[in-house]
Specification:
The protein is of the alpha+beta class. It has nine helices and 15 strands. Among the domains are: 74 residues, Roll (Ubiquitin-like (UB roll)), CATH 3.10.20; 59 residues, N-terminal domain of TfIIb (Single Sheet); 88 residues, no CATH class. The longest helix is centred in the last third of the chain and has 19 residues. The model has no long low-confidence stretch (mean pLDDT 91).
């Protein structure tokens, strides 16, 4: 272990740890913007600068490794002034378009630290937006480069988390900006619309289109995705009893901040008016009547025995079990085919495999894992 001091507090750190990591493990907060624990550090925003006794300059805590006997100061007057200056420079190009953002104001890291360090905002009447708002036709991701601070967290998230390498930095100097591909649209640059860039963006420059204008949620509900058997978890943002957006849960044991396009944006089925929430059976099965003579679909309402009736789960399972057993005993197991679901857990699909082969006595089993 390496012995050092941070703000005159003796601590121990492991070899190879950075000052930022050592401070975080000991409950000492050092502000960051371009840094995220899931991404490789670049030290570009200079918000995490600190003072180290007997060192020249102010090194970035996210890229500077600890050393034996090091004495670090994270909130000295010089460091505070540097951070305030950095924030004021970033705010010069930051512009709120007035469009309703879905990012919680308390989660806008730039504005949070600007308020924390008393950074002065430029005069609103002397500024104009540099870029078009909602400038990309992607159906899920809303792009507003007027809020971008070039932290490149979206670039690293797309490359290091999702492996798509859609985002990059284009142009030079004051004209530098985040671009998709060779300055094309996101979809033309092979974007999968997973929303990783949105999840890691600290300012709302990248946001969710489906949630624009819906306000802030009343509560967060942590749940497990239903789209496949991986078991990804995330937070449902609920307002007035309806889901208005999905946000990554960094504590999710399987996926962390990572989600696919279905998990992050495919939640509107929950409130669809045609969604079935209870099992249904044909009336002739419920009343134990013979199966009616097949009739044309357009005349199906003429025979009430073909109507769907909502029942409880016990009734539905009993009818299903009876029909399966009767079919197997009358025509053999190979007269039955079983199709399992990609929305089931791996353990549930294993049980379906055992049920099909050992109970029904057939190998007619398939799986709809067609992502």
């Amino acid at each position: 272990m390496i012995n050092l001091q941070i703000n005159n507090q003796p601590i121990q750190a492991r070899p190879g740890q950075t000052i930022l990591q050592a401070a975080a493990e000991n409950g000492i907060t050092i502000p960051t913007l371009c840094y995220h624990k899931d991404l490789s550090p670049v030290g570009s925003c200079r918000m995490c600068v600190v003072e180290v006794e007997k060192w020249r300059g102010q090194p970035a805590a996210c890229t500077t490794e600890v050393a034996e006997g090091m004495s670090v100061h994270t909130e000295s007057p010089a460091v505070v002034q540097t951070r305030r200056t950095v924030l004021e420079l970033l705010l010069q190009n930051y512009f709120e378009s007035g469009a309703a953002s879905t990012l919680d104001p308390q989660r806008n890291e730039l504005l949070h630290w600007a308020a924390e360090y008393g950074a002065r905002f430029p005069l609103a009447d002397s500024r104009q937006p540099r870029y078009a708002v909602d400038s990309d036709p992607n159906p899920f991701v809303r792009v507003d480069l007027n809020k971008c601070i070039l932290c490149t967290r979206c670039v690293r998230a797309c490359g290091e988390v999702q492996g798509r390498f859609v985002w990059g930095v284009g142009y030079r100097g004051a004209e530098a900006k985040i671009i998709a591909g060779t300055d094309t649209t996101m979809l033309e640059a092979r974007c999968e619309s997973c929303g990783a860039c949105v999840a890691y963006c600290p300012t709302g420059a990248l946001d969710n289109k489906m949630s624009t204008g819906l306000g802030q949620p009343d509560k967060l509900v942590t749940t497990t995705c239903t789209y496949c058997g991986v078991g990804c978890q995330f937070d449902l943002n609920v307002k007035d009893g309806k889901i208005i957006r999905v946000t990554s849960n960094p504590n999710a044991p399987v996926n962390g901040m990572h989600l696919c396009v279905k998990g992050r944006y495919g939640y509107d089925f929950v409130h669809h008016p045609d969604r079935l929430t209870d099992p249904q059976v044909r009336r002739y099965l419920l009343e134990k009547q013979p199966k009616p003579t097949p009739i044309e679909p357009e005349h199906s309402r003429l025979n009430p025995l073909w109507d769907w009736v909502t029942v409880d789960w016990e009734t539905a399972i009993e009818i299903t079990a009876h029909k399966l057993a009767k079919t197997r005993d009358s025509w053999g197991g190979d007269s039955i085919g079983v199709l399992t679901s990609a929305k089931c857990l791996n353990e549930e699909n294993y049980l379906m495999n055992k049920f099909t082969r050992q109970v029904l006595g057939t190998n007619n089993l398939d799986h709809c894992a067609r992502l």
